[in-house]
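User: I'm writing a tutorial on reading structure tokens. Could you give me a worked example: one chain, its sequence, then its tokens, then a sentence or two explaining what the tokens reveal?
Assistant: Sure. Here is the example chain.
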Amino acid sequence: MSELSLDLSNMTADGDSGAGITEDGLERLLPRLREAHATLWRESDEGTLGFMKLPGADTAPVAELAGEVVERGCEDFVVLGIGGSSLGARALTEALLHPSWNHRTLQQRGGRPRVFVMENIDPRSFSALLETIDLKRAVFNVVSKSGRTAETVSQLLIVKELLEGEVGSEWAQHIVITTDPERGPLREIAGVHSIASLPVPPDVGGRFSALSPVGLFPAAVAGIDVGGVKRGASEMDAYCRDGDMARNIASALVSYYLGSYELGKKITVLMPYSDRLRAFGQWFAQLWAESLGKRRNGECVGLTPALALGATDQHSQLQLYLDGPDDKTVTFLKVDDHGHKLGIPPSLRHDEFSFLYGSTLNELLRAEYEATREALRRNGRSSVTITLSSVCPETLGALMYLYEVVAVLMGYMLDINPFDQPAVEEGKKIARGILEGEVSLEPQTARKIECVLG
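And here are its predicted structure tokens:
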């Protein structure tokens, strides 16, 4: 049975850590929390929150097109997208595929393609990828809700020209477009050139689109059980609807995050103790930053995401978390069953290593988590632990949906719009204006230091 649980013991001043919000502080938040909760579910029932419809949406078109891609002999599947158009796919595939998926043979992959997520436009990285794959056996999933994302469109233009050189007039068969169902340049291009396509629901923003074809289609092509992902999200939806705030996992997280924020803890550290959840952390960072970093009546508000990886960052960032400013809450993601158990043999006899003999890497990783949590507690620092029974489609779908709900509730509690991103749009407009020659940058005082080497 797949399970997800929440431990808030080290988040209250009345609890084990002696840090964080008091029970009285939580009580004072309760009326606002009930109001935000009621608003969320009223809007959900009215159908105005598109991301909340996704757990129950039909995935047959996704599965059908994924099957066609595999049957056509695709050996390299490349996602071209950025931000919300790529991070969901990356989180799902990196968590649920073999960690060496792209290094395995086609047979070992069960006839499924290698998966690449090429989100950035670094020319060296993109060139290297294009040199690595076989264009004749590649399919490019071009993802942009608006259909005009400059980074993604530039990649498409490059790929289209290369494909024409390799396969001629059949270039369109090597592209799948995921975009708005009715409007935008990519939707027009898909129609003109008869390119296979999938819709991004118009009422779903990019950072909330992981459970739509944006994230599910790449996962399905790779053979991931997308039905399980959606089941996990659906089951989490039911838990989040519970009107009892003491049992509602989303509301509990919101109350502690917000209570800590109002005590000056404005940095949210996410620290998974599993390599498989590293990309989930990147997905979370966009969701948290873009949803909650806003201006409210001229005041800049929001929570800053920070990422750490256990046990790796115990040897680096933990120093700051223990002895640095007390402006953070740490959320641990712990996994009970990693799917593998690796023993530590006494192959080099030395008294210094004797405490390791007979143990497993699993036990050592768990001890490292417990040690970090305890060190934070002893230093009066707040932490939350979310435990996954295993990393599987159900638990990952549940975790993603949980944090989407939490982000929206946090926005309502902060009295901001968690769905817009005006600062991001401003940056896009300036970049386009620079390329078009319509924006001139204001002169700045030159303070340059040049180093001539060699």
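What the tokens reveal: The chain has two domains: 4-41+229-417, 53-226. The first strand starts at residue 4 and ends at 7.
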